[in-house]
Design a protein that fits this description.
By secondary structure, the chain is an alpha/beta fold. The protein contains five helices and seven strands. Strands 2-1-3-4-5 form a five-stranded parallel beta sheet, with helices on both faces. It is globular and about 45 Å long. The chain starts with a strand and ends with a helix.
């Protein structure tokens, strides 16, 4: 068992969401690896109201119990795989809200991105890269993008092409390498 802890953050809470199947696919492949322990963090299990903290997250003075619980969850991890839909050329509001709640819990950790949407969710990833940079969350180059046309039957049943397996391996290799290196910065 590795001492490297990585979270797969499911960034959609929409009823009938496609993200659950995508996150399960990512988790299944991650669990085959020995370089890190992966855990699913589903935002549906962490209901956060629209950002309601009176002090900016960078001050680290969280008032709400929901914020303190969310901070404790995220603090346990060395890195993250964000699974995001693309809504209106960006990531989901619920994922952006969850990210905005915290600051130091993201710092000097690694991130990777898995997206899905009509254009594979590439624009959602580009927005997340900018957000992560501001939070001192290093993001790896490799990403996975699933097309609603090519990787979902009838836009609902997840049927990814086998070529995504190799891309996932590269994503995990990069994430584990960066997360391990950044762990030394935090210790």
């Amino acid at each position: 068992m590795s001492d490297l802890k990585l979270a797969i953050v499911l960034g959609s809470t929409r009823p009938g969401r496609n993200g659950a199947a995508v996150a399960d696919w990512v988790l299944t492949r991650a669990k085959e690896r020995t370089g890190a322990d992966y855990e699913l963090v589903d935002l549906l299990d962490h209901p956060l109201p629209h950002l309601d903290e009176p002090i900016p997250a960078s001050a680290g003075k969280y008032a709400g119990e929901h914020t303190k619980a969310w901070a404790a969850t995220i603090a346990r991890f060395d890195g993250f795989v964000f699974v995001t839909p693309e809504y209106n050329h960006s990531t989901s509001a619920v994922l952006k809200n969850a990210i905005d709640y915290l600051y130091r819990e993201w710092n000097n950790k690694a991130a990777a991105f898995v997206s899905y949407g009509s254009l594979g969710g590439a624009r959602a990833i580009e927005h997340l890269r900018a957000i992560c940079s501001e939070l001192q969350l290093a993001h790896v180059r490799q990403q996975l993008s699933f097309s609603l046309v090519n990787d979902f039957r009838n836009h609902t049943t997840f049927t990814p092409a086998p070529a995504h397996d190799q891309a996932a391996t590269i994503l995990f290799d990069q994430l584990e390498s960066w997360a391990g290196a950044l762990k030394t910065v935090r210790n």
